[in-house]
Specification:
388 residues, mainly alpha, two-stranded antiparallel sheet, 15 helices, 1% strand
Length: 388
Amino acid sequence: MEIKLDQAPSPKAGDGDESLETVVTPRLRMHDLLQRPFDVRSVALTGLFLLALFYTIYFLRSLLLPIILALLLSYLLRPIVRWLAKIKVSTHIGAALLLLSVVGALGYAVSFLAAPASGWLEKAPYSLHQLQQKMLPLKKPMEKVAQASGAIDNLTTASSSTAATSPQQKTQTVEVKEHPLADKLMVQTPEFIVGTLTMLILLYFLLAYDGVFLAKIIKLMPTLSDKKRAVSIAHEIESQVSRYLFTITIINCCLGLAVGLAVGLLGLPNPAMWGVMVAILNFVPYLGALTGIVCMTLGALLSYSSFGYALLFPGSYLVLASLEGNFITPMVMGRSLTLNPVLVLLSLTFWGWMWGIVGVVLAVPILAAFKIFCSHIEPMEPLAEFMS
């Protein structure tokens, strides 16, 4: 694989010592690719390879998920471990202290939010009944439409029954029995525990042995110039991925804090729970904010009898999320780390189908890391430009 680097100066005809530094741009690279002859065999082999890759990713999700999570979290937490190393704390101790702090903070957050969340779940049946009563004025205009459509259905049913087959033919009812929820929990809980432990152990070693893998790769390089190139490219990719993950995490936490404070000042119960929900859902672009607004609307309608006042809470959420998405994030991240919205939605769909809810959360970080990687590899520069 050819690595994108500035080529050595080449002498210009007739200029003696003067040189011209050639830079390969994504547009020239795309032009070269389009000039190549179309090879059906190569395209077919590439398609088969992609199908095999997708098949492997889908069926090895229980193995790949802890590894992907550990890699992304290592990029997020590595700057903190390096800062601890600067103040004379070894990477082994720093990684252990950092992981213990993160696990402790998550455990405290779960225990703190468990009570209000369980309260909402316990009141769900009664709350849904209340919500139906509040929505009755809005349902009356729809009843006439339903009655009209029901009359049309009756006419079509009557006409189809006259053209039915003889009564000797009996239809056979097939009932599909699903596994109860308890059986699913019995299967998924041990898998979740094992995956979490695997991720934490791998994350510790990635943080504690920072730079070991890069040193091994450098040893394999034949010349000193290749070693320098590998180090510069690896450090640039790592710094950009770390900056992206750290920045987007800070932005999401600030948005969750702002929404929590806003709805708390307006009087919505359990503002901390709503703030945490907003921060987590904001890792999923577009769909996350939409889901959060719907959930907050339902929660506000269940908490207040006034329909207009209840809409203040999702309205404040919408205003803050719009400011974050249209102004704050583009200003902080810059164009170099922006992603194509169509590809973001396709990535959410793909990884959600592959790995479920966890895949939806990881879709954008995976896409951003892949774009940063492609932007530093010369043959893949057109792909990085396409993802911008």
